[in-house]
Amino acid sequence: MSERSAYEHVIKRAMTKLLVPFIQLFAFYVIAHGDIGPGGGFQGGVILGAGFILYVITFGMNEGRKRISRITSDLLSAAGVLVYATVGFVCMAAGGHYLEYAALPFSSPQLAGHLAIFVIELGVGITVAGVMITLYFLIGRELK
Amino acid sequence: MIKEHAPVLVILVPLLSAVLVPLVGMLRNRFCWHVAFAATHVSFLLSGLLLFRVQTNGKISYRLGGWEPPWGIEYVIDELNSFVLVTIAFIGFLATLYARKSVVAEIEPVRIPAFYSIFLLFLAGLLGIVITGDIFNLYVFLEISSLAGYALIAASRKREALLASYNYLILGTIAATFILIGIGYLYMVTGSLNMADLRERLPALYHSKVVLTAFAFFSVGISLKLALFPLHVWLPNAYTYAPSVVSAVMAATATKVGAYVLFRIMFTVFRVEFDLEVVSITSILLVLSSAAIILGSVLAIAQTNIKRMLAYSSVGQIGYIVLGASIVNETAMTGSLVHILNHALMKGTLFFIAGCVLYRTGIEDIAGLRGMGRRMPFSMAAFTVAGLSMAGVPLTVGFVSKWYLALGALRADLWYLVPVILVSSLLTAVYFGRIIESIYFGRAEDGHSSGSLSRERMHEAPTGMLVPALLLAVLCLVFGISASTTVGYAEAAARLLLGGR
């Protein structure tokens, strides 16, 4: 089977299109669930990245790069870390130590903790997904 | 605000800049350097501020996330690590200054943003290892700096660098794993990861087999990381084939941080009594470091490549640093700690100059340095000063540290260490004397001349590369003539570690 026909397999394409949104939704569920149960940024980020990798496996590298370009995946990798760090700096600006959520101006320290951890997990998730995608493209390029 | 948060900012600034550099690199490749320069500059100023505050007000403790130690991660800055912190931040700052030209010549343009990013991660990791008071956090930073270090070595254009980096990767990973196992064992029996807390909890368990095993893993892992003879095999190739600026930074900071970790584990997490009475690690280190001092110098004599010679000489100098700790008295410890700074100054200069010569002439062999005194007079003057300092000539920093080490050895009735120090100094004088002689009195052979330039015409390295090297060479003299400041810091740190021994 040539490379072209492999990408044109209709069942694979249809199933991937059906599955990817749900995988990504599940990824966000795992990220958001991080501070009260199993899961978190790393796991969710990997699922998010894996969803996109499934898309690339089915539709090919070029189609994948059209969706998420090199610049976008680099930006995602960096943005997550910066989101994490920003939460820390906001805590410092609010008068606490670095990453001291209790200092954030919310009604209770518990609420501040929940929200800040959610944002941090989101940052971790974005970076992990970005790095997963970058790694996949890098390895794929080597194999071509 | 900055004063209060300086302990965390000193790490965060290079760490976040490492993430920003690739983004900036998307706009303009050359802006990467500016970000890196600003970050290392800020980091250096903050570390200076911390040193000043520790000297005036005493120990600083910073609680990350506001969690109380021993539960949360605590950054502790005391007389010992503020001194090491400033050394690393200063070398990092000068190296960034130096990197601008050097990196363009030695690294492929597409990799430059990644290089600066990894370089900043490497520095942030080293600074983090030094500043943290939490033993697991130390491991995390150790991994950050090690992984970045492997990549930095492999960034070179030389193919051999890949193999050197791979060897270092394997050995470095074994070292890190050993350290992690040690941390795991300590956590298993004490339930604590805070260094100060471990110090309180461990004495009751000193004879437990788990603690002894943990200590064994620690000592082997750290010795591998700091390239203590006979675990130095990864070092010569790594330093020889890495880009010049990376060799300089690694030789001046990475192994020093390894020595710092060794001292922390031996004297802060465990106590001196444990080292002396329970495991007698000090006598083992005494033998190994003496062997390192002599054999490092002997192997250095045999080398023909400049950077490889400097690398073997580093193996010997690491021996000096560990020797001071294994004598276990304040004088020798002072010598050992001041040598952390002094060796960073000397080796920084030497590797910087080796890079300057490579940049201008492409010469990597010692034979090629013949008659170089006329062609690159300032570089060679700096090289000479640092070379004399390595041999321990009075009025240079090398003399100061060797003086304290020899004095400490005599005070501890270990007279046989004095000949070791003397013989090694003589051997060092042999390999540097040979080079210095050929730099100034040798005639250049035509076979080595490159391009249309005459060998006799002055053709110095670019200012950006020359200034950091000259500055370090001047400091070699300044701190050699007036050693009271540096020795003062080292004495305070030695008192803290050994508590009046």
Description:
The complex is a heterodimer of chains A (144) and B (501). With 144 residues, chain A is mainly alpha-helical. Chain A has one domain. Helix content of chain A is 78%, strand content 0%. In chain A, helix 2 packs antiparallel against helix 3 (41-59), helix 3 crosses helix 4 and helix 3 runs parallel beside helix 6. Chain B is mainly α and 501 residues long. Chain B has a domain at 280-501. Chain B is globular and about 70 Å long.
Blueprint (SSEs and pairs):
The complex is a heterodimer of chains A (144) and B (501).
Chain A: H1 3-7, H2 10-32, H3 41-59, H4 61-67, H5 70-93, H6 109-143
Chain B: H1 2-27, H2 31-57, E1 60-63, E2 74-77, H3 79-106, H4 112-131, H5 135-154, H6 160-190, H7 195-201, H8 209-225, H9 235-241, H10 244-269, H11 272-278, H12 281-301, H13 306-327, H14 330-361, H15 372-375, H16 377-391, H17 397-411, H18 417-441, H19 463-481, H20 484-498
Antiparallel strand pairs in B: 1-2
Main beta-sheet annotation of chain A = none
Q: How big a fraction of the residues of chain A is strand?
A: under 5%
* Rough outline of chain B: globular
Number of helices in the DSSP assignment of chain A: 6
**Strand segment tally of chain B:** 2
User: Biggest sheet of chain B: strands side by side, in what order?
Assistant: 1-2
- Largest sheet, strands/sense/barrel of chain B: 2 strands, antiparallel
* Rg of Cα set of chain A: 18 Å
Short account of what is shown:
The complex is a heterodimer of chains A (144) and B (501). With 144 residues, chain A is mainly alpha-helical. Chain A is built from 6 helices and no strands.
Task: Give short descriptive properties of this protein.
heterodimer, A: 144 residues, mainly alpha, elongated, B: 501 residues
